[in-house]
Amino acid sequence: MERLLLTFAALIAISASAVAQRVLSLDDCRNMALDNNKQLNASCIRQEVALNTRKAARTKYLPRLSALGAYDLSSREVSLLNDDQKTALNNLGTNAAGRVGSSLNDMLTGFAQQGLISPQVAQSLGGLFADAATPIAQALNGLGSGIRQGLRTNTRNKFAASVMVTQPVYVGGAITATNQLADLNEQLMAERLELSRQTTLYEIDQAYWLVVSVKHKERLARKYLELVRKFDSDVQKMFDEGVATRSDELQVNVKVNEAEMQLMQAEDGVVLSKMLLCQLCGVEYADNITLADEDTENLSLPALYDDNGQSYDLRPELNILRTAVGMANTSTKLARAPYLPQVVLTGGYIATNPNMYNGFERKFGGTWNVGVVVRIPVWNWNEGTYKVRATQATARIAQMELADATEKIGLQVSQCRFKVKEARRRYDLAVKNVEKAEENLRCANLGFAEGVMQTTDVMAAQTAWLQSQTQKVEAEIESRLSQVALRKALGRL
Fold it and tell me: Do 191 and 140 have their domain in common?
């Protein structure tokens, strides 16, 4: 049991130590920033959108298949006969019997007047025809009604279905231009992603070395406070012995207070700079976060970044502008396309119910069809010309912006190269100043102990020592940041 408790306590201690010693290197901060940066993640999503847009543009070369189904209820049906023709068919027998009866009566009356037959015979023959005409008329009326019913289309309820295939052959170059724009847009999103990546890394490097710089200045402030406190103790003893004056004592006390304020400011600076770094890394700020370089006594300068006169053609900003020029030129082609001839192949199958291809039969029936559609714009009041001119002007603007950005980035690269060399020279001078300031402080302390130096001389030497150490730290950080800035200016971060 006791052994179990000891093991458990050891595990807790190890866990607590791990939490308390969360050490982050520059690469760790970079990786966390790349994983958690929201703008960078948004750029990744934009690139995915551009990829899918490009894939969608490729489908415009392929045939299109569409299906259609429809139902229509109308108040009236399609009729092959007009109203007069319908009335005539309904009264077919009556009209025919009337005309035949009238003609027969006229003929019999003529025969009676000519004496060929007697009036009684003519009347008798007319009565016989009248008796026989009625059933004939009724039969013919029924036949006419049957013919009318047979010619009904019964098209109040209409169903239709179709399958169509369209294949663009030439649409004025619009499909090619659309695909080119999609390719350029995908390239643009990739360049924007690279720009976001480099910007994020640059900000992380700056924030990381800012923390290291402030942390080293905090350490210097603490050492400086120890110096002035020791000197204050020495002066207090001398004052008690009557060797130093009250003025000397007060002057040193003021220096102690100033040193304490400087240390407080440095400690606040460490907290604030770490907050900024954590925000850029996308993690919550914690007191236990320690940077790998913040406790290093002396920062070793990295080897000078030798760009060997490398060009800055890899700058994402320039690539973005080059892509913008290409997109503007392609937009000109796209603006011209609607005003050029267009050719499309079509084919399909159409079925209807009632079947209009077979006497409006109450079942589905249809037919296949193929065709060619040719569209030739004739006159549009120069709309196309104006649109093309507008896109051409946009392309010229993009070209000018590219040229201007190229000049400015060239100047930026030259300035960064100069700053790298200047930072290294400043560091060399700072190292020499530190050596001289340390020797000056040693001599001042020795002279004060021997009574040949004043308190003001010692405090001046201490201040000079702090300034030289601070300048050395700033030169170390500046040397690193200047090289980071040069790599970013070259687009190689």
Answer: no
